[in-house]
Design brief:
This protein is mainly α and 71 residues long. The chain has helices at 14-27, 32-59. This is Transposase, Mutator family.
């Protein structure tokens, strides 16, 4: 692949490095599977919240909204 097509890697931010350090300290992964579990624990709720926000935006109301809807 030519270098023109490759994106330039950016340096991790201080916040990102601090979060990565905390994940490593808290989970202390020894294997690839341990790391996958840690990443699922950390990022799973983030992705769920993002997807729920997309669904709410697409539908025009929250999934827990019991008010009358215009159809």
């Amino acid at each position: 692949m030519s270098t023109a097509l490759m994106k330039k890697r950016r340096n991790p931010s201080e916040k990102g490095q601090a979060i990565a350090k905390l994940i490593m300290e808290q989970y202390q992964p020894k294997t690839q599977e341990d790391m996958q579990i840690a990443l699922k624990d950390v990022f799973g709720p983030i992705f769920e919240a993002m997807l729920q926000g997309e669904i709410d935006n697409h539908l025009g109301y929250s999934s827990n909204d019991h008010s009358k809807k215009e159809t």
